[in-house]
Design brief:
With 433 residues, the protein is an alpha/beta fold. It is built from 19 helices and 14 strands. The chain has two domains: 196 residues, Rossmann fold; 172 residues, Glycogen Phosphorylase B (Rossmann fold, 3-Layer(aba) Sandwich), CATH 3.40.50.2000. The strands form two sheets. It has a seven-stranded parallel sheet with strand order 3-2-1-4-5-6-7, sandwiched between helices. A seven-stranded parallel sheet has the order 10-11-9-8-12-13-14, sandwiched between helices.
């Protein structure tokens, strides 16, 4: 009797699956979630890595009364959340009558979202687990008019609920790595049924567009918007720290161990190139007590921005003031971008690229991997693996004038080619809101 019951249930599932892969996905995902969650929680607890945001992802959160005019943005983690910054601020400016909700998928993404958008967004929370009960709980509290998901996250249940509730659903800044593409291609029949539920899919490049179309995105709904991260503006502020007549190297947003690396390389180059100067910019000025002994040991003259020291007096200036790094890239010849010789994941090179200044970074770049990939397709940017490679590439930029000039031109070309993505999204919202 039990055997016949099991066979009957399996046959029923097969029949239902023939008509609705989504039903099967929802059923299996729910069962697996219920079975595996306790084990996953115990493993995370033992390792000291707790499940941050799990209550919110389950749908257990309090939300303010947002009304029916809501624009929702989702960025899974740090890189996506940062990429949305200018767009979210512009959305608030252009659509003041709409409430803005920002969701993330990770703890670090949530922290960045709160830091950047607490004064802009009306509500910040986690994206729900992609199982029916969680998504339903989410939509019972958040009733968006439109949902814009950064890059390429395909959630079948969430997309289906959007379709059912007549919520406009967009992928923006869409991209797909080669490794992800290979996996998605194997399941393109399944993903095709998800992608048709999207209002539009807006990608970073023609390559990304073609990849998405090949896994089932409707060509008539899939367009190139370019890259949101390139919507960086030059500052009109002028800078004078005695840089006239010198070639300035900026080491921007450096972290532990990186100051020692860059100072040692600079000391070596200074013996060969007497016209170079270094602007050292630690990511956290609270680390100055750790950095000053390194400077003292180098025997190179150094000063501080806060004290009004200039390159006319010193070979190294430490930028120990807040909020000035962006404009400083306007005076450099090229920049090393820190947070890349540890596990930080790098920082934004476009603050230098916008001024047509080449950048170099270490191997840890996961927060801006797509940007560095674009820059490294030309001489605009270079990813190095070791301090020795960093020294060698700096030597090329200092010694080969033709190479350096081409690198500056490549920065300008790439930046101009990629700009305009923000306006594409804003124009799209104007058409539907």
């Amino acid at each position: 009797m039990i055997t016949y019951s099991i066979i009957l249930i399996l046959l029923l599932l097969v029949i239902v699956a023939m008509f609705s892969e989504l039903f099967l996905y929802g059923l299996v995902s729910t069962l697996l979630f219920i079975i595996l969650l306790p084990f996953y929680y115990v493993i995370r607890a033992i390792s000291g890595k707790f499940l941050y945001g799990w209550r919110e992802k389950l749908g257990f959160f309090k939300a303010p009364d947002l009304g029916s005019k809501v624009i929702m943005y989702h960025g899974v983690s740090v890189g996506e959340v940062i990429a949305l910054e200018n767009l979210i601020k512009k959305t608030k400016e252009v659509f003041p009558d709409y409430k803005i909700v920002v969701t993330t998928g990770t703890k670090t993404g949530q922290e960045i979202a709160i830091k950047k958008y607490s004064q802009v967004a009306d509500f910040i929370t986690y994206f729900p687990f992609d199982i029916p009960l969680c998504v339903q709980a989410f939509f019972s509290k958040i009733k968006p008019t439109v949902v814009l998901i950064a890059e390429t996250e395909l959630w079948p249940i969430f997309a289906s609920f959007c379709k059912l509730k007549n919520i406009k659903l967009y992928t923006i800044n869409g991209r797909m790595s080669d490794s992800t593409y290979k996996l998605y291609r194997l399941c393109r029949y399944f993903f095709k049924k998800i992608l048709v539920k999207y209002t539009k899919i807006l990608t970073q490049s023609e390559i990304d567009r073609n990849k998405l179309i090949s896994i089932g995105a409707p060509p008539e709904k899939t367009f190139v918007m370019k890259n949101l991260k390139f919507d960086v503006k030059r500052t009109n502020e002028t800078v004078d720290i005695g840089q006239e007549g010198y070639r300035v190297i900026i080491a921007g947003s450096t972290h532990k161990t990186e100051e020692e690396i860059i100072i040692n390389i600079f000391k070596e180059k200074l013996q060969k190139y007497s016209d170079i100067k270094l602007l050292l910019v630690p990511r956290h000025t609270t680390r100055l007590p750790q950095i000053i002994p390194i400077l003292d040991e180098s025997k190179i003259s150094y000063g501080f921005r806060s004290k009004g020291d200039t390159f006319a007096q010193k070979d190294i200036i430490v930028l120990d003031t807040m909020g000035e790094l962006g404009k400083m890239y306007s005076i450099c010849n090229f920049a090393f971008i820190g947070g890349s010789f540890n596990n930080t994941g790098g920082h934004n090179p476009l603050e230098a690229t916008v001024y047509s200044k080449p950048t170099i970074t270490g191997p840890s770049i996961h927060n801006f991997r797509d940007i560095y990939w674009l820059l490294s397709q030309s001489k605009a940017g270079k990813v190095v693996k070791t301090p020795e490679e960093l020294s060698d590439y700096m030597e090329v930029l200092l010694s080969d004038k033709e190479f350096y000039e081409q690198a500056c031109k490549d920065c300008e070309t790439i930046f101009n080619d990629q700009q305009g993505a923000l306006d594409v999204v804003i124009d799209e919202l104007k058409q539907i809101l």
